Every structure is written in C-alpha cells, then in structure tokens.
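Sequence, please.
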C-alpha cells in the first residue's frame, strides 16, 4: 500500500498543525542541556547565548523540514526520507551530548570499537527517546504536510533569522559565550557547527615561546642513539624491580589522599599513600587509553587514537617504532611483562604492548589459573578483583627470582559507563556506577597492597600507581561530584590524575611533591629519575617531575584538542592568554610535526637488540 493512500488520523493533523512534536523536541533539548544551563556560575550571558546558539541550529533544521514537507506534499515517502536525512545529523549530536557530555569528536570516532561499553539500560532509553522524537517530527509533517507555502516559508525564514542572529551574537559576545563553552567542555554550543571539530585544523603562525616547548629532542631526526641508557650505566649493579599500575580513567579528585570530595571512596589507596610519595598538580597529557599508555611508556603524543586506528594499522601489517621504557630496561638486563585485563584480541592493547617491546603480554586467559581469577566476569575482560588477584598470583610465582623485572599493567573495571559485578564492592547504596567502580578498584588494590607490603617485592620494587588518563565526564560521574560539593570540577577529559610512588627505602622520597602543572608525558623520565638512570640525549619527550623547567606550565593534547595548563587552569586556542599564545602555538606545531613523523614511521629508528 502506498503511503499516499493512508488516511491521516485527526490527531496527526492536529499535531502537525500545532507542531507538538517540535515543541516536545525543543523541551527535550533543554533537558539534555540541563546541567549546562549554568547561567548563575559567572557566565550568565554566555550560557544564555550558547543555548540560543544550539536552538538556532534546531530551528533552522525544523524550518528546512517544514519546507521539504510542503514541497513534497504529493510524494509523502520522499518527504519523509528527506526530513529524516535533514534531522539525522542533529539527532546524532544531541544523542552523543546527552550520553557522553560533549558533541561528536575524533576521539569518539576512534573509539567506536568499544561502543559496547556504552550499553546500559539508561543509555538505551536515551537512544529510544531521541530517535522516537526526531522520527515523530519527520513523520507527522510528512503525513500532514502544510497546505500552503506561506507557513512553511515563514518557518524557514524565522529559522534562518535565528541562526544568523545567534552567529552574530556569538561573534559580538565571543568571550562570554566561550567562557560558558569552556566550562562545559563544548568547543561549539551549536550542534551542527560542532561537526567542524571533526575536520583537521590548519597550523597557526608561530609566535615567540617563553616555556621552551617540550623537553628532549621533540622533533626526532629518525636516528636513535647507540643505546637509550648511557654506556657507563649498563653495567650497574643490582637495581630495583619496577611495577607501574595504570588505573583506567581515574582522576586525582576522586582519591581521599588528594582531598577527594566523596567520603571513604578510596580508603585503601589512602592507606597506600601514607607510605608513598603523593604527587599533586599532575595532569594527563592526552586521552584516551591507547594514547595514554603509549605516551607515558614512550614519551610521545601519538596521533593514533582509539582501537579503530590500531585495528587498521595492525590489519595492514603496519608497525611503528618508538623509544620506550621497554628498550631502556632491556638494555639494563630486565625482563618485561605487561598485564592487560582484556581477553586476548578483544581490544588492541595486547598487540600494542607487544609492538613496543614487552617480552610477554598477559591477558585474561594467561592468568585465569591463579587463585581468585577464573573466567572473566565482564564481557571481554577481567573484573578489577580478578585483575589484581591475577597480578598477585604472578608475583607470588616469581618471588625470589634473580631476574630484574619491569612490569606494567592496565585494568578496565573503572571505565566510564560500566558497573561492578554483583558480587564485588559497590559504594553506598550502589546507585552511582562511577562511584561503584572507583570504590571496587580501591578494594581490589587494597588486597594487592596487603600482599605486596608483606612480600619480598616490598624490599626491591619501585611501585607506581597512576592512570592512563582522567575520568571521562559521563553523566553519573559529573552528577556525583556536584552532589558531593566538588565545585572545582569542569567536564574536561584533561584533569589532575594520581601519581603515587612507593620506594623501598623509607624517607628516600618526600611524602608529598608538587608537580606544578607537569603532565604524564614525562612519566618515562620520572621513572628514570627515581632509579638514577641517565637517559641518552634525544630520548623521551616531556620533563621529569623533578626537572627544573623554564616555566611551570604543562601541555595536553588529544585529537584536534590542544590545552595549555597554568595555575590549575586549562586554556585552548580560544581562551589562551596573549602572553602564552606563542607557547601554545609552538606546542601545537611540535605535536603535529611529531604525529606526522609517527604516521610516516620516521619518529624513531629501532635501537640495538634487547639484552637478556
């Protein structure tokens, strides 16, 4: 039966005439912006105009849809298809904003392989609501199109006027609008214009830089030194083992030892902090996981993003060469191992870690025989309790070994949107998944810490707890921080992250140390500083937290986003001060140059064979 022959119900005609679906849609948009209507937080006008900016895009699309319905009023199927094509980009942006706290970004596209992590009943309901409302807007107008052209043209020109007006207002009040956008992690308030974030940005002219940019030889010449470790150190005596634990997406603000606002969330990490050096004002230099792990272990800003980028590279048989801690410790005679919570081949972390030189990569299957581990409780990965039980099992098995070990690991249980297994720890009444996962990680780490401090490893191992990147700004996390009075938080993917270092000799490290806006780019150099290993010239970008820097500022970047960090504030291309614009532009240029060299695999020429 042709859609043209359908008798349009009276309620459809009524709804179309009075634009009820459009009104409901606009109400939904106001609700989605909910916590972003921060008109009373010092950005009243910016917030008002930013919301107008978003609504102008919506009005423009609704006007075009109304005009399409009139023009194709005799071909209702075509009218419906055209309306759907017009509304789909808008629906996608609002859906992504509602679920993820920001519009579609290159980072999100690069992580599409892990979209299953977003599946919760709450997110499923959001998808249903948005698609239903946008479909209703398109379908109702197609079934009961405007009978005269005047209403349709009027709607279109009103929409066009509001769009142009919002653009002019944003230009005139750019500072206020941008202040509001920066508070809310929106590069653009308007959903359609936010698509420009998916386009590459052109290089900007460089100004004078005061900070010295990035330490080390930032722009590699493709030639590795004879070795990473200075020759006089390769014959050094017995050194400490090294264990780096990268917690998935954890910010310092959630940890009690850093003054976290949520009470009793991390009692075990707090206990560990009393025996470790607690580093404050330390930021993640990039996001998300693949960039974070690679960047910290090898001292780089990688241009390869999420799982999708690495899948394409590995599928084509591609490789990339980096100067990494694995090579450094290999030259010192260490054996290296990486602990990945994923099931093998469920992600590309295991392939990445093998590529950068770990002698062995242990996945969920590799540790299931240890007590307390067994089959993965989560889809595709170990739970955090299982993960730390596996790590304990491995360490027990290697107690008393004569080999020096360099170990690193990454869990998955604290990832955004996931919740804890039913038989593991939850926080309070268990209603906030973001707090449950952090609390559960803390409990699992506590079991590990109890084992570690009474084991032989406590006498011969440098233990570092940090994160691959800051916690993602999922809805439950943002709301939980607000509910507990953390008014300093801004929904950005760059934030202060934990860095806690345990050294066997008590008193060797200070109990607290301020990194003064330094970033995780310098972790490799920080580790070598802690072990007193001089690194060859041109290895690892970034600064050790102990290094003297020209200026106490930091830099962070992921995708097309670039941030300058100063005095606990983040600045991007719009908000950076004139005094720092030269530093910012130099940093941006250096990162892009590094990523071009990485893309051509000219970043680093592999060094000598690893020693065993």
């Amino acid at each position: 039966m042709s859609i043209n022959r359908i008798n349009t119900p009276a309620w459809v005609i009524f709804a179309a005439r009075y634009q009820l679906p459009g009104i409901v849609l606009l109400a939904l948009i106001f609700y989605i912006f909910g916590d972003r209507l921060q008109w009373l937080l010092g950005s009243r006008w910016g917030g008002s105009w930013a919301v107008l900016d978003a609504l102008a895009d919506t009005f423009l699309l609704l006007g075009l849809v109304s005009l399409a319905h009139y023009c194709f009023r005799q071909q209702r199927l075509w009218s419906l298809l055209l309306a759907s094509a017009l509304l789909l980009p808008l629906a996608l942006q609002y859906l992504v904003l509602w679920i993820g706290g920001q519009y579609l970004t290159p980072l999100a596209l690069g992580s599409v392989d892990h979209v299953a992590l977003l599946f919760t009943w709450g997110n499923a309901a959001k998808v249903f609501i948005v698609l239903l409302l946008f479909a209703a807007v398109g379908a109702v107008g197609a079934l009961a199109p405007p009978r005269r052209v005047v209403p349709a043209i009027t709607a279109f020109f009103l929409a066009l006027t509001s769009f142009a007006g919002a653009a002019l207002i944003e230009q005139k009040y750019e500072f206020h609008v941008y202040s509001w956008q920066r508070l809310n992690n929106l590069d653009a308030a308007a959903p359609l214009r936010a698509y420009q974030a998916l386009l590459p940005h052109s290089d900007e002219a460089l100004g004078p830089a005061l900070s010295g940019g990035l330490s080390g030889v930032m722009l590699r010449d493709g030639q590795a030194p004879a070795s990473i470790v200075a020759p006089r150190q390769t014959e050094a005596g017995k050194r400490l083992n090294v264990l780096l634990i990268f917690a998935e997406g954890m910010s310092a603000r959630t940890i009690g030892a850093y003054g976290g606002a949520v009470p009793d969330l991390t009692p075990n990490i707090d206990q560990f902090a009393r025996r470790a050096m607690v580093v404050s004002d330390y930021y993640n230099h990039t996001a998300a996981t693949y960039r974070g792990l690679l960047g910290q272990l090898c001292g780089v800003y990688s241009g390869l993003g999420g799982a999708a980028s690495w899948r394409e590279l590995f599928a084509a048989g591609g490789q990339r060469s980096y100067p990494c801690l694995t090579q450094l410790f290999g030259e010192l005679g260490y054996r290296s191992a990486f602990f990945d919570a994923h099931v093998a081949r469920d992600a590309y972390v295991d392939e990445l870690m093998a590529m950068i030189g770990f002698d062995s990569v242990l996945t969920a299957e590799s540790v299931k025989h240890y007590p307390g581990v067994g089959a993965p409780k989560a889809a595709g990965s170990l739970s955090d309790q299982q993960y730390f039980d596996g790590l304990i099992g491995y360490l027990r098995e290697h107690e008393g070994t004569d080999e020096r070990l360099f170990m690193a690991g990454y869990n998955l249980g604290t990832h955004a949107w996931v919740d804890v297994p039913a038989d593991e720890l939850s926080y309070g009444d268990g209603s906030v998944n973001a707090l449950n996962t952090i609390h559960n990680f803390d409990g699992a780490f506590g079991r590990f810490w109890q084992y570690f401090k009474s084991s032989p490893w406590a006498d011969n191992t440098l233990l570092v707890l940090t994160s691959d990147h800051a916690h993602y700004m999922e809805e439950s996390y943002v709301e939980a921080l607000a509910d507990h009075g953390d008014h300093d938080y801004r929904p950005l993917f760059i934030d202060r992250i934990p860095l806690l270092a345990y050294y066997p000799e008590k008193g060797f490290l200070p109990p607290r140390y301020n990194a003064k806006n330094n970033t995780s780019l310098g972790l490799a150099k920080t580790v070598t500083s802690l072990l007193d290993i001089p690194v060859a010239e041109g290895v690892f970008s970034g600064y050790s937290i102990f290094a003297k820097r020209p200026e106490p500022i930091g830099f962070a970047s992921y995708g097309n986003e670039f941030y300058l960090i100063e005095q606990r504030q983040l600045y991007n291309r719009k908000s950076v001060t004139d005094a720092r614009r030269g530093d910012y532009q130099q940093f941006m240029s250096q990162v892009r140059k590094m990523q071009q060299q990485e893309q051509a695999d000219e970043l680093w020429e592999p060094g000598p064979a690893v020693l065993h």
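The chain has a mean pLDDT of 79.
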